[in-house]
């Protein structure tokens, strides 16, 4: 079971929108860190990827995303989807709710027709 209550030190004092993720293949956690200048806020997914890369990980296959919203599944924002795509196109993405229920999808489903590193190699 994917636990939506894993401990992560979230900074969401501005929006109270708490998001936690775990890169399942490396067990690296990430959380959103808000900033008064909203454009400088770092989403949980990008936080986890950057942390994992700093720890030496480069290949990922799955991520679980959880949010405190109880009535719907919340997925990564567009910017995070693009960052995830930089590290592979075949991700399983588990969107979870606080009650432990989850929905499995894929990065390809969330970001069809994505611009990937392979596009840069064609020129």
TrEMBL record:
PROSITE patterns: CYT_DCMP_DEAMINASES_1 (PS00903), CYT_DCMP_DEAMINASES_2 (PS51747). PANTHER family: CYTIDINE DEAMINASE. This is CMP/dCMP-type deaminase domain-containing protein. One of its GO terms (molecular function) is identical protein binding. Keywords: Hydrolase, Metal-binding, Zinc. One of its GO terms (biological process) is pyrimidine-containing compound metabolic process. Its cofactor is Zn(2+). InterPro entries: APOBEC/CMP_deaminase_Zn-bd, CMP_dCMP_dom, Cyt/Deoxycyt_deaminase, Cytidine_deaminase-like. GO terms for cellular component: cytosol. Residues 1-118 form the CMP/dCMP-type deaminase domain. Belongs to the cytidine and deoxycytidylate deaminase family.
